[in-house]
Request: fold
Amino acid sequence: MTLDITTCSNSQGWGPFTPDNPLVPTVCFVESVILPLPFILACFAGLVRLRSLIDRPSIYPCQGSLFISKLIVAGLFSLVLALQLLGAIIDPDHHAPDPPGSGCLPS
Reply:
């Protein structure tokens, strides 16, 4: 299954409101516009907060390469986690093949 936002599988279409009841939004409109709004707002608020934290002077001075190495590892971990989540959202049915010798015989 791949993420395809160009087609709407619901018979009511993209809407934004159903033809039968003008107060009820269509399913495709809710799933593609309304549901992502809190995520988008949270990302924007997080970026604003991150910017304010970057501008604030630090209480503890950053000393040595240990701090930088921990920062790099944390950033790489966050990047890998984000890529894994994105891959699971875009193609949830994809899985790696079984390793050789795992006992799973092809049928």
